[in-house]
Amino acid sequence: MIQLRRNPMNFRSLIRAAAIALALAPAGIAQTTQISGAGGTFIYPLASKWFHEYNTQHPNIQINYQSIGSGGGIRQFSIERTVDFGETDGPMNDQQLKDAKIQPIMHLPLALGGVVPIYNLPGHTLRFSGPTLANIFLGKIVLWDDAAIAKDNPGVKLPSDPITVVHRADGSGTTYTWVDYLSKVDGEFQKKVGVGTSVTWPVGLGGKGNEGVAGMVRQTPGSIGYVELIYALQNNIAHAPVQNAAGEFTNASLDTVSAAAATAKIPADYRVSITNAPGKGVYPVSTFTWILVSPALPDAAKKKALHEFLNWAVTKGQGYSKDLGYAPLPKNVVQMVLKDIEKLK
Amino acid sequence: MENIQQEREGRGPAAFPDAEKPFEDAPLMKLPEVSDPLQATAEQPGLEAVAEPALVAASAEAAAHSFPDVYGRSTGRVADRIFRFATGSCALLVAGLILIATFYMAQGSIPAFKDHGLGAVLSPVWDPTNQKYGALAFLFGTGFTSLIGMAIAMPLGVLTAVALVEIMPGRMAQFISLAVELLAAIPSVLLGLWGIFQLVPLVRQVEIAIVKSPLGLRKLPIFSGAPMGVGFLAAGLLLAIMALPFILSVTREVLLQVPTAQKEAAYALGATRWQAIWRFILPYSWKGIFGAGLLGLARVLGETMAVTMVIGNTPQIKASLFASGYTLASVIANEFTEAPSNLAISALISLGFILLLVSVLLNAAARLMLFYLNRSMGVPKGAK
Questions:
Q1: What whole-number distance in Å separates Cα of residue B141 and Cα of residue B351?
Q2: Residues on chain A touching B339 (C-beta within 8 angstroms)
């Protein structure tokens, strides 16, 4: 400023520049669209990669995402209306949809995840059927040499050690997927424990987060727990194959998880659990993670930007999924979603 | 202003042990604010020794007059007023923050209390799928872990402080107190991780040893259950580690304030070091040590992250060191982000409210206890 005052020419040109800038400003503001969203932590690494890549390709669209948890994402989007989209690892239930302050709300799947059993029984490689897992987590199977475990693992010599069950202590989509699967394969589990992000476990210890569960399992001989597939892959944790509806013991991988979405029957609103999906080659404890959007979004520019971004995310964006440990959407689902995105136009 | 005068009046006689009136009220009025370490140390009896006798005498004389008379200066200056205003508003702000937080928690708990009724809130059943939110298991967990933590940290902290002040050579004492104070700077989530990976396996080894011991220890209810490592014992140990720096540094300061002259008098009368410490120094500073304990307890009650990582997070009531449990703070941290309904959120807030009530009640109980103890055994008596 001091220099400018010494040189009136410069000062004048500055004023001129400022005037031009002011005149152009409204146009500039209109060009940058800022979208905000909130929801689950599971999608966060992939989502932030997407938002970054998309922003470098489309500098006029900025997307901010807060990974505050699925429950918080649903509340902020549907009740408090503080964000433009939500994100959740478990679909909203009918009551939540009815209570929403914005109607209608669409669930669109963005990626897939799996939940895998991990155990600490050195020197043993095990596999599990769904009912066996359900009975272990119900506390009905208490020893490793139980007949049910032996039946799943013919030829394996099992020790007569007690089983320590480890589950998630914090409410999470991981728990939701795990108990959703166990409830589908075992009627008693459904009655006693039920489905939810945080449930009442009849037995076991609670660990906080994937790292808490994995840590406890690693530290406790004879323990069994469950973590997100992505966490197991990133940390090279051995996980057990689980028997699918077709009777195969399937190891969880990005491909077998994607396969579950390809064979599952998907309703028009996508609010579906794809655990225990039919068909061969599918991993049974798999789930979608959904973005929550609404065609009733009041800001047209934001709606348009979201429309464009989602088109990109379910097509080109899926290319980033595998590198980050997410299972990409299968082709048939991508086709379905692309049609529904048009409702945002 | 009046406070200061009362304090001075209270301290005056204590600086002259032969004064007739034993000092009673002044330290008592200050102790409840122990959540501030400075406060806790400020009320130590030793401070009187620092007060210059002349000043004390002057303030005693000037009790009826205004404070600045001691210094012979006028009060009406602008800077003085600004200063008074600034400090006053800071104090009000702090009080206001507590009130606002309390109000928010009380308000947030209303739906849960309405839905459940007070009795059901204190039931042991916590079942989010069926919308049953009882707090008793968490209340028990918080109480039991705090008890274990304090039972370990108090003797450890006080004895270490005695060693640092009375026994160890200066350099070494300095090094150790620095090391312990650094403990307070470790984020609790890191301590929790350390707990999972090192403390829990160690605790499990100890638990297995207890279970297998030929003494039949496992028949005691406190050692019942399977030795898993995770549980109340591990949580209590972690809490002890966290409370230790607070207890230790406050106690050390308290012990440092014991007048040297009186210490030397004890030795001159032929007391051994043990006798001097046990019969003179510790009784002389017990109020300050009590304050240190309260400060440690405050730390322990609200600790969240580290505990949740090693306690097992099972809402059950089992008074065994081996059992897993759950605390009020842990369940809030675990379930708040994914709370399935508004009622669940309200229930979690009500747990916070209960935790606050517990802290307030404990503090009030400590105040009362101090009040009565103070009557029956004043410090000067104990210090004889």
A1: 12
A2: 71, 171
CA distance B367 to B357: 15
Mutate to test the interface with A, among B316, B324, B338 (most CBs of A within 10 A): B338
SS3 label, residue A42: coil
Closest CA relative to residue B322, chosen from B247, B228, B197? B228
Residues B313, A207 contacting (CB under 8 angstroms): yes
N residues, chain A: 345
Taking CA atoms, what residue in A is nearest to B201? A219
Query: What CA–CA distance (Å, rounded) separates B315 from B319?
Result: 13
Half-sphere exposure of B233 (CA within 13 A, CB side): 24
Q: Which residues pair with B18 in a beta bridge?
A: none
CB A287, CB A111: distance < 8 Å: no
Question: Which tokens in the block code for residue A228?
Answer: 């997100």
Distances (CA, A) of B11 to A187, B55, B65, B263: 73, 11, 18, 19
Read off the tokens for A309.
């971004």
Instruction: For residues B72 and B110, give the distance between their C-alpha atoms in angstroms, rounded to a whole number.
Output: 56
| Angstrom distance (rounded) from CA B195 to CA B187 | 12
Sign of CA dihedral A316, A322, A324, A327: positive
ipTM: 0.71
Check if the beta carbon of residue A36 is closer than 8 Å to that of residue A283: no
Partners of A173 on chain B (C-beta within 8 Å) are: 338
Return the exposure string of A175-214: e unless at least 16 CB atoms fall within 10 Å of the residue's CB, then b.
bbbbbbbbbbbbeebbebbbbbbbbbbeebbbbbbbebbb
pTM of the model: 0.75
Cα–Cα distances in Å, from B248 out to B177, B252, B281, B305? Answer: 8, 6, 16, 22
Nearest CA in chain B to A161: B226
- Helices (H) then strands (E): counts for chain A: 14, 10
Neighbours of B142 (CB within 10 A): 27
Burial of A128 (0-12, 13-18, 19+ CB in 10 A): buried
Task: Write the burial class of residue B384 (CB in 10 Å: 0-12 exposed, 13-18 middle, 19+ buried).
Answer: exposed
CA distances from B206 to A117, A211, A269 (A): 29, 24, 55
Q: How far apart are CA A198 and CA A174, in angstroms?
A: 10
How far is residue A300's CA from residue A280's CA, in Å, rounded to a whole number? 44
Contact between A174 and A115 under an 8 Å Cβ cutoff? The reply is yes
Instruction: Give per-residue pLDDT as tens, A190-244.
Output: 999 988 888 889 999 998 888 889 988 988 889 999 999 988 888 888 899 999 9
Using DSSP, state whether B308 is helix, strand or coil: helix
Across the interface, whether the CB atoms of A206 and B326 are under 8 A apart is answered yes
Q: What is the mean pLDDT of each run of 10 residues along chain B (384 residues)?
A: 42 41 42 42 43 46 49 68 92 93 91 82 83 90 95 95 88 90 89 91 91 82 85 95 93 91 89 89 89 91 90 90 92 84 88 92 87 67 41
Report CB contact under 8 Å: A219, B197: yes
Task: Show the tokens assigned to B208.
Answer: 């297995």
CA distance linking residue A300 with residue A298, whole number of Å: 6
Bond prior to B245 in cis (omega within 30° of 0): no
